[in-house]
Amino acid sequence: xxxxxxxxxxxxxxxxxxxxxxxxxxxxxxxxxxxxxxxxxxxxxxxxxxxxxxxxxxxxxxxxxxxxxxxxxxxxxxxxxxxxxxxxxxxxxxxxxxxxxxxxxxxxxxxxxxxxxxxxxxxxxxxxxxxxxxxxxxxxxxxxxxxxxxxxxxxxx
Length: 157
Prior knowledge:
Layout: E1 19-23, H1 29-41, E2 57-61, H2 72-75, E3 77-81, E4 88-92, H3 93-99, H4 103-112, H5 117-123, E5 126-128, E6 142-146, E7 152-154
Parallel strand pairs: 1-2, 1-6, 2-5
Antiparallel strand pairs: 3-4, 6-7
Helix pairs in contact: 1-4
C-alpha cells in the first residue's frame, strides 16, 4: 500500500489482464464504444496508470445487431484516401455495415483511444465479431454488460 500523499503508479509486472465478453445486439454504437474503450484503457481499475496498458481484453459479439440513432444510417460517411488523385472513397454507414460489419464499431472505439503506440496496443486487445461465434473460449471470458452510468455488471453472478 502506498504512503499517504504519494501518487500510485502501477509497474508493468503488477498488471494482469482479464478477458470480458460483451453482447452488442440492440445496443447503441457510441454508448457501447465509449464503455468498451474505458475497459480497454483500464480506467475501471484502481491501478489505472495513463502511460501503461492497464486495460483488459474485450470480445464483442453480435455487432451486426448494433443500432444507431437518427439518420446516421444514410448520413454518417466513412472516408478513406488512397493517396492518388481522385482516390477519395466515401461510404455511408449502411453500406459499410453490409460490406464490413465490424468496421464501424472498431473505428468508433479506435477514435476514443489514444492516437499513438499505446492506443494501438490497447486496440489490439479488442476482438470484434459480427455473429455470436468466437475462437476465444480457451481464455474463459467473463460475460459482462454495462449499466446506465457505464459501470461493469457481471452477468451470472
